[in-house]
Specification:
mainly alpha, 200 residues, disordered N terminus, single chain, 8 helices
Length: 200
C-alpha cells in the first residue's frame, strides 16, 4: 500500500518535470514570439532563494502529510499564487509581501522539522496564504512589455516543477524510516534560512 501511494505522486512529479523542461527549451529557441516573457516567468522562482526554498518545502511538507495533501497542498499553492500574480501586476512592491515570503520559508521549515500535521483545510489554507505573497511578488516584478499570460504560465510551471521535486524527495526519503530524520533536518535548515531572511 505504501509503495502504491508512493508511485503515483512520484510518477506525476516526474511527468510534470518532463513536460516542463522541454517546454522551457522550446520557448527559449530563437524565433518564438514572447519567449522572453515566458522565460522571465520561469526564471523568477528558480533564481530567488526565498521562492525556491518555499516551493520545494511546500512539496516536501505535502509528502510528509500524505493522503489528499499530496495534491491539495500544491494545488492550493498554485491557485493562490496565480491569484496573487494577477493582483500584483502593475501593483507596487509591498514590504509586507517580502515579509510574508521570508515568513513562508521559516514556517514551512518549522512545520517539516517539527513534523507538524495540520488538518487538510488548515494546511492548504496556510500554504495558500503564503502563495499569495509569492504570486504578488511575481506579478509586481513582471518586466515591462511582457505578455502577462505567458509570464504567469512560466512561473506556474516552474513552481509546479519545484513542488514536484519536494514531493519526490519527501516520498523517497519517507519510504525508509531511518531516513525520516534527514527530512526533519532539511526542514530545520530551511527554517534557519527563513529566519536569516527575516533578519537581514
Amino acid at each position: 500500500m505504501t509503495i502504491g501511494i508512493f508511485r503515483r505522486p512520484a510518477l506525476a512529479a516526474a511527468a510534470a518535470l518532463g513536460a516542463f523542461l522541454p517546454a522551457a527549451a522550446a520557448w527559449a529557441h530563437p524565433g518564438h514570439e514572447h519567449a522572453e516573457g515566458f522565460l522571465s516567468g520561469v526564471m523568477h522562482p528558480l533564481t530567488g532563494p526565498d521562492h525556491l526554498l518555499a516551493m520545494i518545502a511546500a512539496g516536501l511538507w505535502a509528502a510528509r502529510l500524505g493522503g489528499r495533501a499530496l495534491w491539495a497542498v500544491p494545488l492550493a499553492f498554485l491557485g493562490a499564487m496565480a491569484l496573487g500574480g494577477v493582483l500584483g501586476i502593475g501593483g507596487p512592491e509591498l514590504g509586507v509581501v517580502e515579509w510574508g515570503i521570508a515568513g513562508s520559508v521559516l514556517v514551512l521549515g518549522v512545520l517539516i522539522a517539527a513534523a507538524v500535521r495540520l488538518p487538510l483545510a488548515a494546511g492548504a489554507g496556510l500554504v495558500g496564504l503564503f502563495a499569495l505573497c509569492h504570486g504578488y511578488a511575481h506579478g509586481a516584478e513582471m518586466p515591462l512589455n511582457t505578455d502577462a499570460g505567458l509570464y504567469g504560465l512560466g512561473f506556474l510551471l516552474a513552481t509546479a516543477a519545484l513542488h514536484g521535486l519536494g514531493l519526490t524527495a519527501g516520498l523517497l526519503l519517507g519510504r525508509e524510516q531511518r531516513l525520516v530524520p534527514a527530512v526533519r533536518v532539511a526542514g530545520g535548515l530551511v527554517a534557519v534560512a527563513g529566519a536569516w531572511m527575516l533578519l537581514v
